[in-house]
Structure formats: C-alpha cells, structure tokens
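Inverse folding, one chain.
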C-alpha cells in the first residue's frame, strides 16, 4: 500500500485521469489487503399475486344448435277453388276473428251454375206436380174399376222417379252453393294475418298459399339434433335459449323427441314448449342443450398460458425456506364453460392456482400470494 501511495503522491500533479486511476487502485488494494469480498446483489422482492384454491364444482356438458319457433295454432290459408282474386279484404298483420273474410275470388261462373240448377229444379218440380196428379187420377180410376192396376203402378213409379229427380237437383244446388261459399276465403281461427304474397288479379288454385293466420300462443321450439349426438336425448332435458351475446334468455325442457330420424338431414326432431310474447313464429334462435351436469375442476381462462401448442398454469407452493414460490405445471384442458376451462389433468383440488400477475413470474420465482376474494 505504501508503494501505491507513494506512486500516487509522486504523480499528484500529473493530471486528473491519473488521480482517478490511483483512487480505484487504492480501493482495490485496500479490499485485497484486508481479505474482503464484494457483497452479493440483493435478491428481488417476492411478486404479489392472487391465488384461487381449486375445488370441484358442477360442470355442465352442453351443445349449441339452431332452433325455430313454431306455433301450434298457425294455419296456412289456401283456397279450395280455382279462380281470379277480385278483392283482398285484410292487410298483413291485421288481427281477425274466426270466420272473418280474408280474400274474395271471382265467383260469377259458379253463381251461373247455381242459377242453371235452380232453373232445372223448377222444371223438375213441375214434372213432379204432373206426376202426382197422374198418380192420383190412376188411383181414382182403379178404385172405380175404370182403370187397370198396371196403369196405376206406372203412374206411381213415374211419381217416385219425378220426386227423386227433384231431390237430386236439390242436392246439386246445395253442393254448388257450398262450393260458392269457398270463393270467400275466411279465417278458420282468430289470430294475426301473416304475409299475403298474392295480389288482386292473380289466378290461384288450391295449391296457392294465400296467407297464414297465427296465434302467439302455444309456441314450441323445434331443434334438429344430429344423430351422432342424439343418444343423450331424454324428456325433461334442459334447453336454454341464448341471445346474440350468449346470455341465457330462457330455460325450458324437452317435451317431445321424434321416434324417427329425418332421412334427408339425419337429425332427430326435439320440441320444447315456450311462453308466448317473447318470441315470434318462425323465428330462429340459439339453443343450448345441457346434456349432463357432473362435479369437475375448472380454472379461469386468464390463468392459463399457451406455449408451443401446450397449456400451462402456475400454482403457489411453499418452499423449504418458509416462503412461497410459483411452480409451472402442464395442464390438460377440456371445453370452455362460460369464462372457465374444464381441467382434465395436471391440477387437483386444493391447489392454489395463481390467477393474476402471471406475466411477471417464472417457474420457481418467489411470490407473495393472497387469496382472491
């Protein structure tokens, strides 16, 4: 140390740079001469994290499908006759009572047919009157001995034939009048008129759909379930209706399961009753079928990291120094239920899962864990 001090003293006037070098050398020589070492760097403080103690909870196995709302009281209106539309009495969306006239079809030809039959009836009635008089005359002559039995029998037969002809014309008139009534298309039930795709002047046939009459009562949801998933179907199975954000708007139960499979779509039809007012006929809805509910382990989605296609999570465990460290574990995950993953492996009930601050820690890092409220 003396030589160093002497050298520095001799060069005191040599400049500031040399003075700095001398000062550093003196510090190092002093430390070496005293047998000391540089202090180790201080350990970083534990990272504050939140933990969640895992436990079994009910886990639902669900499937999502598209359903259609149908009305048990929806009636498709079609004409029973062929002709030209002369008048559309109602408008789409109108509420009508049972028996209200919806559409009128040109019935002039039918009225003419009824008129012709009524004229024929008049002639048949006149013939019947004459036959009755002849039968009475034949009966009088027979009783007086002036007529033969054969003549009497012929007159009675002619009277019966004439009466039958009158009845036949009556039946024809009644039939044609009933047919005439079909030219006024009426509502079979009360309800709301649907879309009217036809216009005045259109020619319609019994195959033409004029409109529908619906009642928003007695609604059902129709859901077609693929055959591969239909093995779990049973009456009473919960059906949930979801809105655009995935929130549940209603929960119902399966009331009908078709005993046969749709050969074209290879699906099984399932129905559930829903209340009126919330939904409309022929509306498409998101349907979630709850297949089963069993105890299971779930973890929040935000507590899981994905690295190279594998999933990992951190758990807080005590070390041998009385502290707490974070340990990274590989996990096997199932489907997402809400905001949680279903855990199939890698974690167990009782583990303290780290759910916040996972971006600031690594495997083996000390942590200061607090239970999430």
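Residues assigned per position:
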């Amino acid at each position: 140390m003396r030589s160093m001090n002497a050298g520095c003293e001799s060069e005191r006037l040599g400049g500031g740079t040399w003075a700095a070098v001398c000062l550093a050398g003196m510090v190092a020589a002093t430390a070496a001469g005293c047998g000391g070492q540089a202090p180790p760097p201080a350990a970083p403080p534990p990272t504050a994290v939140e933990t969640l103690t895992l436990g079994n909870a009910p886990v639902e196995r669900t499937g999502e499908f598209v359903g259609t709302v149908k009305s048990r009281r929806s009636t498709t209106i079609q004409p029973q006759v062929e002709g030209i539309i002369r008048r559309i009495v109602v408008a789409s969306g109108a509420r009508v009572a049972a028996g209200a006239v919806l559409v009128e079809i040109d019935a002039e030809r039918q009225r003419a047919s009824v008129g012709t039959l009524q004229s024929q009836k008049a002639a048949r009635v006149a013939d019947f009157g004459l036959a009755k008089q002849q039968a009475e005359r034949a009966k009088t002559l027979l009783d007086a001995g002036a007529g033969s039995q054969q003549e009497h029998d012929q007159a009675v037969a002619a009277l019966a034939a004439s009466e039958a002809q009158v009845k036949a014309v009556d039946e024809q008139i009644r039939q044609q009048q009933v047919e005439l009534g079909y030219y006024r298309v009426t509502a079979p039930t009360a309800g709301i008129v649907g879309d009217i795709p036809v216009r005045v002047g259109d020619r319609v046939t019994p195959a033409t759909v004029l409109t529908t009459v619906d009642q928003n009562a007695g609604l059902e949801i129709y859901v077609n379930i693929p055959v591969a998933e239909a093995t779990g179907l049973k009456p009473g199975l919960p059906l949930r209706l979801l809105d655009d954000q995935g929130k549940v708007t209603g929960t119902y139960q399966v009331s009908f399961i078709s005993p046969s499979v749709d050969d074209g779509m290879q699906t099984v039809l399932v129905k559930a009753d829903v209340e009126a007012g919330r939904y409309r006929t022929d509306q498409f809805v998101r349907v979630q079928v709850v297949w089963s509910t069993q105890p299971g382990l779930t973890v929040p989605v935000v507590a899981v990291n994905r690295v190279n296609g594998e999933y990992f999570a951190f758990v807080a465990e005590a070390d041998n120094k009385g502290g707490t460290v974070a340990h990274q574990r590989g996990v096997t995950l199932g489907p997402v239920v809400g905001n949680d993953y279903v855990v199939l492996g890698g974690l167990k009930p009782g583990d303290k899962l780290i759910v916040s601050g996972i971006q600031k820690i690594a495997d083996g890092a000390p942590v200061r864990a607090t239970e999430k409220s």
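Confidence is low (pLDDT under 50) at residues 1-25, 27-35. The CA atoms of residues 217 and 276 lie 5 Å apart.
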